[in-house]
Design brief:
394 residues, six-stranded parallel β-sheet, 2 domains, Rossmann fold, 16 strands, six-stranded mixed β-sheet, alpha/beta
């Protein structure tokens, strides 16, 4: 099959890599440098398995029928499937996702008038979106299939998926589910077919539950910190209950990244006419947590506050909506004595704060080093490090 994929972020590139072993895959992007890197089998994002597969392809050890292009018409023409993996984001002013990038791709596919092409949306969208698109453009050949990927492990999560969900009962939808299942290395992957609204809800409710869990353990940690208790002991004790489990329980500065912040806000918007308190509380808890972290850091009256890394978590190159960014904003309201260490940033400043790539200089200058996630390279200045990372993992 010919499968076109619009967007080469975590979702698009991991899917393109996964499917290119058994299909012809053409990845479309609007950034020339990303297109060039993909065509040279150099990953434009940090992902252990994508980098492994690309290295093997470049060395001739693995066959990937994958190419990238800036030319959407070249990619979409005669495609059996066009998979949309472009970024969507929550628009606070409109109280809804900005889905303009998705509709741009849909309109391009429609303009080619190819009846055999089916559109699959992998971008995160609000509940009811596919049905609204079917009515708006008078089309049926479109459905949503949510992804459940972790940054830095996107291809791994496609190879060993927790489940495959497709928001349609059509023959092309079943075929797409089979393509995903056949490409996976995991055996007996559960496939669920449902209607589009339900598939969209699965995505938003799944991520909001994860955000709830993050917020819960963060608020537990805040309580322990204020009351002078050992949060690690409390968390270890309650996590031995098998109904709770010792996973996704490590405190942080707040949830962030590509999905959780926007998905929780979008789900809250979807609750407009539905009674609720919990969803609103999850969103609010994340704001409160980041303010508490900033206030707690400032309570020590540090001379120079060092921010260790802007990335959301270890082994990631993503700064998008990282909790540390709001912590910095909250700190800046009280002081401008801040220095950021971020070796992956090609700039001397970030949002008005000076940036350095010299770790030795950073460690010597800063009186406190704020780290969402600890690292062995901070071991020699552990007495300076402020973190709520109790278990040294994401």
């Amino acid at each position: 099959m010919k499968i076109a994929i619009a967007g080469t972020g975590y979702v698009g590139l991991s899917l393109a890599t996964l499917l290119s072993e058994k299909n012809e895959v053409v990845a479309v992007d609007i950034v020339p440098e990303k297109v060039k890197r993909v065509n040279n089998f150099v990953s434009p994002i940090r992902d252990e398995y994508i980098e492994k597969y690309f290295n093997e392809a470049a060395e001739g050890k693995r066959k990937l029928n994958l190419r990238s292009t800036l030319d959407w018409e070249d990619a979409f023409t005669d495609a059996d499937y066009v998979v949309i993996a472009t970024p969507t984001d929550y628009n606070a002013d409109e109280n809804f996702f900005n889905t303009s990038s998705v509709e741009d791709v849909i309109e391009k596919v429609i303009s080619l008038d190819n009846p055999k092409t089916t559109i699959v949306i992998k971008s995160t969208i609000p509940v009811g979106y596919v049905n609204s698109i079917r009515k708006k453009y008078n089309i049926d050949n479109i459905f949503f299939s949510p992804e459940f990927l972790r940054e830095g492990k996107a291809l791994y999560d496609n190879l060993y998926p927790s489940r495959i969900i497709v928001g349609s009962f059509s023959e092309k939808a079943q075929q797409f589910a089979d393509i995903l299942r056949d490409a996976a290395l995991a055996k007996d992957v559960q496939v669920l077919m449902m209607n589009s609204d339900e598939a969209e809800a699965v995505k938003l409710f799944s991520n909001t539950y994860l955000a709830l869990r993050v917020a819960y353990f963060n608020e537990l940690d805040t309580y322990a910190k204020v009351k002078g208790m050992d949060a690690k002991s409390i968390i270890s004790g309650i996590s031995l209950d098998p109904r709770i489990g010792a996973h996704y329980n490590n405190p942080s500065f707040g949830y962030g990244g590509y999905c959780l912040p926007k998905d929780t806000k979008q789900l809250l918007a979807n609750y407009k006419d539905v009674p609720q308190d919990l969803i609103k509380a999850i969103v609010k808890a994340n704001v409160i947590r980041k303010k508490f972290i900033a206030d707690d850091v400032l309570a020590g009256n540090p001379k120079l506050i060092g921010i260790y890394r802007l990335t959301m978590k270890s082994e990631s190159d993503n700064f998008r909506d990282a909790a540390i960014r709001d912590v910095i904003k909250n700190i800046k309201e009280k002081t401008d004595k801040i220095l950021i260490y971020e070796p992956m940033l090609d700039a001397d400043e970030f949002e008005g704060v000076k940036v350095t790539k010299n770790l030795k200089d950073f460690k010597s200058k800063c009186s406190v080093i704020v780290a969402n996630r600890v690292s062995p390279e901070l071991d020699d200045v552990r007495d300076k490090v402020y973190t709520r990372d109790l278990f040294a993992r994401d």
